[in-house]
Amino acid sequence: MSTLGDSTRCVHAGVPALSPGDPLQPGPVFAAPYALPPDGYEPGVDGYGRGDNPTRRVLEAAIADLEGGDTLAFPSGQAAVSAVLMTVLRPGDTVMLPADGYYNVRTFASSFLTSSGISVVEAPTAGPYPSFDGVRLVLLESPANPSLDVVDIAEVSAAAHAAGTLVAVDNTAATPLGQRPLDLGADISVASGTKALSGHSDLLLGYVSTRSAALYEAMASWRTLGGAIPSPFDAWLARRSLSTLDLRLRQQTANARALATFLREHPAVTGVRWPGLPTDPSYAVATRQMRRIPGIIGFTLPSAAAVADFLRASTLVTAATSFGGLHTTADRREQWGDRTAPGFVRLSCGIEDTDDLLADFTSALSA
Ligand SMILES: *Cc1c(COP(=O)(O)O)cnc(C)c1O
What we know:
- This protein is α/β, with parallel strands linked by helices.
- It folds into 2 domains: 6-242, Aspartate Aminotransferase, domain 2; 246-366, Aspartate Aminotransferase, domain 1.
- It contains 11 helices and 12 strands.
- β4, α5 (153-162) and β5 form a beta-alpha-beta unit.
- α2 (54-67) runs parallel beside α7 and α3 (77-88) crosses α4 (103-113).
- The longest helix is centred in the C-terminal third of the chain and has 21 residues, at 245-265.
- It binds pyridoxal-5'-phosphate.
- The site of pyridoxal-5'-phosphate (PLP) has 14 residues, from α3.
- One of its GO terms (molecular function) is lyase activity.
- Belongs to the trans-sulfuration enzymes family.
- It is an enzyme of class 4 (lyase).
- This is Cystathionine gamma-lyase.
């Protein structure tokens, strides 16, 4: 890994060297077909937008630098996760999914994998993990969304590899500045770039990173043949947003630390999860494994109505799903079918000033 600091890497990652007269921030290249040489297609010359786009390559080079593996960008996190599942799994295989992770992945599995003869088993992120014997692929999610449990990726990867099981890690919540799953032994890091990675709540994106040439080729071919490519404009916005990733995460984590500490003491709050709290069940493994703790908190109010009252009284917290953006948002997860209490809120800390958020929470929770 480069010895440069996180912000330096985020500003420069993937960006080609400039020549005099070049714009510091080159614009996106929009293209369906490109002009071909008169003798016909030549490998290395861009031919058609589904396979080739220079703006997408810049974003992929940037994420590759941060994740430490060859990277393919997808138009959403779900497109990236499904690329992993559809290229690795064959009828008769078994896949192990997180029981407490992103619900859409389980729904994809029950909708499209089981009917193709693939068996799906679930394991809680915090363990215990059942035997990996006969399991083709285990997908880990750490920290898991929304449980915020953390798994020791190196330990589980070693156990899975001993059984011949491939390991993919959903790195959405952590981002590559929080942890690098490939360094911890995973075969694939897969993530939604819709959340903190791009962080401005204005695009959907996903990616996969791997050091395996075979897995990379399989997923690249899946993408070109399946057609799930991000637009050049979204790829450009995402690379542009990456420059401030370290700054945004720093403020989100600082806000999460202050709000989690505040919520833990508040009489109206019946439970708080934030892996950066020393009292959190995931604290030990999170602080050992991760370089920074994300700005996502889970907290519980007595009922769904209490959450609605809190949201009505707050002036700074917006009800919204997704997380990792500039604005502080709250999402009552049960409404989406998550296996959580009716009053459970996933709070995504934005980059607002900490004191303003604390004052807003103080008055909104007393209302
Ligand atoms: C949001 C999310 C996804 C899916 O990403 P989209 O960009 O919404 O398709 C996958 N995994 C996790 C952990 C997520 O939070």
